[in-house]
């Protein structure tokens, strides 16, 4: 505690900008710097393969936890650069939107929750995505897997947002075999698409296997010497439902907890998929001029088998367990391989990094929140990133508490009932309701979460609305320093206020009954025509409107999502 509270601070400058003395330089822990492996110099822009998993926790990969069998991922990471200070968003849509736009949620209007299947909402159409920039740079761009960035108009579809081809599911969660997706009781439809049409008749094959097969087909038919390729493999795994094939569950039969056993099997299937993709990269002539990025989209949900241990919190929260992501880069083009990077990085950084790597013009895109971190990854240079705005969600407020800060003066800087989180240098500040804040040990016992779980439960802080941690010293968020360091609290609240002045209005429209699959041939498809007025759908969810009706509707949805173990935004499971 003494070490954490004695770190030096300097003041925020005008509008909350930080002077360089406040944050220590981002440091890189390097291993085997004398590695003799060859670094290949590309003759053309590199082929880029981005593999994104769904709900994979910090403790759900072999090099963090030997109980999880991921030999391919472990080998690729050990030969590349492990990103051990890398951040994503706590849920699906926010991470994917920030990846593809390079912007924080407050700058896209998607700062609240996810895009649900019936919402007339999608990634802002006036923003140029990084796949579109890659197309401008001469790339062939392909996406396989989960989209979850809206589809109410055809203009929202992946093929209109930068991908020459698309094969996958548009909603947030589907059955691994039937590709059925539900948005409430009786509101279910088929969700597997080829380009802009429904891919009927493809059910029965496990989605990870089906998607891997499609990636290999694309790699086998494309000529790598003629045109650079961008492949975005956005896997459904390891999201619920836990439908692992039995053959993959058997190696984990020693795990007493059934959910953990099935979840671990899904991770092993991901490892096998990555093995098959990298084999195809070598077989078809891509590998020597390729960059492979592996990332999760958010933390795991412990109650459906995942694990973020020893980090605090889970999916849907702004604790480290929800936002610190598993990630690594593997490439023969890396100048400094076989090391662990402690440099601060965020999922928004991939936009300028990959566009720059492709030889594209990043300056054509104004308003990016990401940084080009390729020199940091490849050469071990300091990260240009010194802070991360995790989010500001004005629709999510902590009820029953008056706005408060650390000291009377801080109350005028920021409404601390608003859910928000920010990381600046070593410091992390959370306000409002950060979400479920327990430390959940690995679920290896059959009776999890039995009475022993209370040993690691967070029983304090129920009346709080401000938390402060030195993440470098205390990555597990066990020592709240808000009372000891009111000066730091004040400056980070000012920084939140600065970011909030740049925010665009939240876009979270109410459900449109026309989206019901029963009205659209039994599938989830775009339902709003191109000639309809866009202003009609620029809605913001109002919690105070039709309170009685909303309560009934949300009550039914809560019951449904609890049954499916997909209540990703609940803080009171």
Automatic annotation (TrEMBL):
Superkingdom in the source lineage: Eukaryota
InterPro entries given in the database record: Alkaline_phosphatase_core_sf, ARSB, Sulfatase_CS, Sulfatase_N
Signal peptide: 1-23
Keywords: Calcium, Glycoprotein, Hydrolase, Metal-binding, Signal
Cofactor(s) the record lists: Ca(2+)
SUPFAM superfamilies named among the record's database cross-references: Alkaline phosphatase-like
GO molecular function: metal ion binding; sulfuric ester hydrolase activity
Gene3D superfamilies: 3.30.1120.10, Alkaline Phosphatase, subunit A
Start and end residues of each Sulfatase N-terminal domain: 46-359
Protein family per UniProt: Belongs to the sulfatase family.
Protein name as annotated: Arylsulfatase I
Originating organism: Salmo salar (Atlantic salmon)
